[in-house]
């Protein structure tokens, strides 16, 4: 009896048991839809933000007023390949990594 059940189960798994190969494709559709949803809601916007931040960092020049990621407001006095020197007070300059510049301040901000 047990052998018959095993052989029937084996025969159904080999032949597909009448469910067909299309059923497997249908079961993958939700996973594909989830991946597409994640791509458009998470991955694509993050790539756009990274590209915009990179362009902003490449456009920084001497005299720009910036805000750092830690909240310091300063004026760019010197640019290096990976660093930026900011004047944050009359006689106070700090050297930071370029990546820590969060944004360029507008002229109306003060």
Sheet having the most strands: 5 strands, antiparallel
The helix tally amounts to 2
The shape is rod-shaped
Provide the spatial order of strands within the biggest beta sheet. 4-3-2-1-5
Q: Give the topology string: H per helix, E per strand.
A: HHEEEEE
CATH topology label of the largest domain: SH3 type barrels
- Which CATH class of the largest domain applies here? Mainly Beta
> Ends: how far apart?
87 Å
- Low-pLDDT parts are none
* Proportion of strand residues: 25-35%
User: What integer is the average pLDDT?
Assistant: 85
SS-derived structural category = alpha+beta
Domain count: the total is: 2
What percent of the residues sit in helical stretches (DSSP H or I)? 40-55%
Question: What is the CATH architecture annotation of the largest domain?
Answer: Roll
Note down, in words, how this protein is organized.
The chain has two helices and five strands. The chain is α+β, with helices and mostly antiparallel strands and 110 residues long. It folds into two domains: 40 residues; 50 residues, SH3 type barrels (Roll), CATH 2.30.30. It has a five-stranded antiparallel beta sheet, covered by helices on one side. A hairpin with a 4-residue loop joins β1 and β2. The chain is rod-shaped.
């Amino acid at each position: 009896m047990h052998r018959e059940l095993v052989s029937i189960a084996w025969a159904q798994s080999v032949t597909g048991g009448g469910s067909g190969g299309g059923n497997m494709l249908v079961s993958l559709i939700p996973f594909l839809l989830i991946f597409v949803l994640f791509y458009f809601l998470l991955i694509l916007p993050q790539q756009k933000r990274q590209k915009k931040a990179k362009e902003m960092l490449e456009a920084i020049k001497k005299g720009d007023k910036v805000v750092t990621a830690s909240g310091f407001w300063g004026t760019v006095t010197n640019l290096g390949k990976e660093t930026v020197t900011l004047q944050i007070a009359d006689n106070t300059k700090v050297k930071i990594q370029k990546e820590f510049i969060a944004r360029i301040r507008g002229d109306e901000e003060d």
